[in-house]
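Deliverable D2.4 — example input (C-alpha cells):
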C-alpha cells in the first residue's frame, strides 16, 4: 500500500472520530503542530528511523514531546502509527486530515501563477471569482511567480487548471495553426 494510501486510511479514521466528537478543527490544529515539529526538526525523523532504537523508546520520545499538546485521540493515532512502524506517515496523516476537513468545509487551495507577486486584494478577488468555478465555498490562494507566463494568470485548483496566461494563449494558437495545416 502506498504511503499516501496509508496516511489517508488513518486520516479518515481520525476524521470520523473527530466528527463524532465535534472536534474536527481542534484535531486539525493539533496535527498541524505535529507536522510543523516534524518539518522543522529533521533530526526527529532521523532518530525515529534508527533501527537500533527500540519501538517503545520511540513512542516514549513522541509521547513526551506531544502528549501535553494533543488530545488523546490524536496521540493514540500517532502511537498506533509508531507501533506499526509507520512513523514516516505522521506528516502525511496531517496533510490528508487537513484535506478531509477542507473538503467538508468546501475549502480548496488554489495555486495562482502570475508574472508578479499578487497583493492580498488581488488574491481575494481571484478567490471570489474562481471558488464558484471550482465548486468550492472558499479558496486559499497561494501565489507562485512565474515570469515565463509573459502576462495574465494561470489558476490551478485540485486537478483543474484555468489558463488565462499569454503563454497559454500562444500555445493554444500554435496548436490551432498546426492543426489547420
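Example output (designed residues):
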Amino acid at each position: 500500500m502506498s504511503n499516501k494510501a496509508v496516511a489517508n486510511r488513518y486520516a479518515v479514521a481520525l476524521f470520523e472520530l473527530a466528527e463524532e466528537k465535534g472536534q474536527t478543527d481542534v484535531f486539525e490544529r493539533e496535527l498541524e503542530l505535529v507536522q510543523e515539529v516534524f518539518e522543522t526538526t529533521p533530526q526527529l525523523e532521523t532518530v525515529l528511523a534508527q533501527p537500533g532504537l527500540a519501538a517503545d523508546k520511540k513512542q516514549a520520545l513522541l509521547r513526551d514531546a506531544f502528549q501535553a499538546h494533543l488530545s488523546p485521540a490524536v496521540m493514540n493515532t500517532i502511537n498506533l502509527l509508531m507501533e506499526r512502524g509507520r512513523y514516516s506517515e505522521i506528516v502525511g496523516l496531517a496533510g490528508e486530515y487537513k484535506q478531509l476537513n477542507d473538503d467538508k468545509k468546501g475549502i480548496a487551495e488554489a495555486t495562482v501563477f502570475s508574472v508578479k507577486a499578487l497583493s492580498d486584494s488581488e488574491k481575494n478577488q481571484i478567490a471570489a471569482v474562481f471558488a464558484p468555478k471550482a465548486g468550492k465555498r472558499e479558496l486559499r490562494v497561494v501565489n507562485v511567480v512565474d515570469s515565463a507566463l509573459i502576462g495574465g494568470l494561470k489558476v490551478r485548483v485540485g486537478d483543474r487548471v484555468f489558463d488565462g496566461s499569454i503563454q497559454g494563449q500562444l500555445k493554444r494558437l500554435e496548436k490551432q495553426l498546426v492543426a489547420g495545416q
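The two ends are 48 Å apart (CA to CA).
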